[in-house]
């Protein structure tokens, strides 16, 4: 069963240095969906250490729960965030939401 459009929760504004949690979830997909996050239409690498572009970022992505957590946000984390739920039958994307730091 193709995933339905996931429900995404993105904080509107977060003070520099604070923790921010972004959530993405849908219930219809079978098998269960995995989740990937995008900032300004670019995929957020699940592995920040191996990707030079994300080395200054301090976030973790859980593809199973759809949670994206920034441990200490900085100005560079400002942007439009969206999430895609994917399974064998297809994928669905939530609307982009702005997060300001």
Automatic annotation (TrEMBL):
It is found in: Cell junction, Tight junction; Cell membrane. Belongs to the immunoglobulin superfamily. Residues 6-101 form the Ig-like domain. GO terms for molecular function: cell-cell adhesion mediator activity; integrin binding; protein heterodimerization activity; protein homodimerization activity. It comes from Mesembrinibis cayennensis. The keyword Transmembrane helix applies. One of its GO terms (cellular component) is cell-cell contact zone. SMART domains: IG (SM00409), IGc2 (SM00408). GO terms for biological process: cell migration. This is JAM3 protein. It is a single-pass type I membrane protein. PROSITE patterns: IG_LIKE. It comes from the Eukaryota. Keywords: Cell junction, Cell membrane, Disulfide bond, Immunoglobulin domain, Membrane, Signal, Tight junction, Transmembrane, Transmembrane helix.
């Amino acid at each position: 069963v193709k995933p339905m459009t996931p429900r995404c929760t993105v904080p509107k504004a977060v003070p520099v240095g604070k923790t921010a949690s972004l959530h993405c979830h849908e219930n219809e997909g079978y098998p269960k969906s995995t989740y990937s996050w995008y900032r300004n239409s670019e995929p957020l690498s699940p592995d920040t250490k191996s990707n030079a572009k994300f080395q200054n970022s301090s976030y973790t992505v859980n593809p199973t729960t759809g949670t994206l957590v920034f441990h200490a946000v900085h100005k560079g984390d400002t942007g439009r965030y969206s999430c895609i739920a994917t399974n064998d039958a297809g994928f669905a994307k939530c609307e982009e939401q702005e997060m300001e730091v």
